[in-house]
Amino acid sequence: MVNIPHAILCELRNPPNKITRDAKEFYISFNYRDRRIYGGETTAVVVGQMQRFYILMGDHTKALADLSFNDCLNYLHDHKDQYSNISDDLPDRNTTIQEILATPLPWMEKLKLKNK
Predict the structure, then answer these.
(1) Rounded distance, CA 45 to CA 58, Å?
(2) What is the pLDDT of residues 29-78, one digit of tens each?
(3) Angle, vertex CA 24, rays to CA 94 and CA 73, nearest 5
(4) What are the b/e assignments for 78-105, b being 16+ CB within 10 Å?
(5) Which residues of 36-46 are buried (b: 16+ CB within 10 A; e: fewer)?
(6) Under 8 Å CB-to-CB from 99, ≥6 apart: which residues?
């Protein structure tokens, strides 16, 4: 029998994120464990391969579960009062996933300038 430390067993039984909607271009992630980092429970609309995180405080998984990406963006805009301060900047309502992924993150632009 393998002796697995208790802390690892807890992580396996209760992963920090629950993916509630998983699509090719984006998914919904609910995090209930990292309260000290985020200030409470959070729900994120994650774009691409974790290239953008649009984070709301609280559990919004049921509301976002069956929405298209544009409907998720509208939902995020309608709940700006719950937007996390560590989230990526929210794009305009009609922005496509392709447009979001084609736009470099501000820190990437700074890195490019620094390396020139």
Answers:
(1) 13
(2) 888 877 777 788 899 999 988 889 999 999 999 999 899 999 999 999 99
(3) 25
(4) eeeeebbeebbebbeeeeebeebeeeee
(5) eebeebbbbbb
(6) 91
Indicate the range of 1-10, 25-34, 104-113 predicted with least confidence.
1-10
Higher pLDDT, 6 or 26: 26
N-to-C CA span, the chain: 55
Residues 80, 29, 70, 107, CA torsion sign: positive
Alpha helices in 1-116 (DSSP H): 6-13, 35-38, 61-64, 69-78, 97-102, 106-114
| pTM of the predicted model as reported, rounded to 2 decimal places | 0.74
Query: Which residues on adjacent β-strands are paired with residue 83?
Result: 56
Minimal CA–CA distance to 48: which of 22, 80, 82, 77? 22
Residues with Cβ within 8 Å of residue 60, at least 6 apart in sequence: 43, 75, 79, 82
| Contacts for 7 with CB less than 8 Å, ≥ 6 apart | none
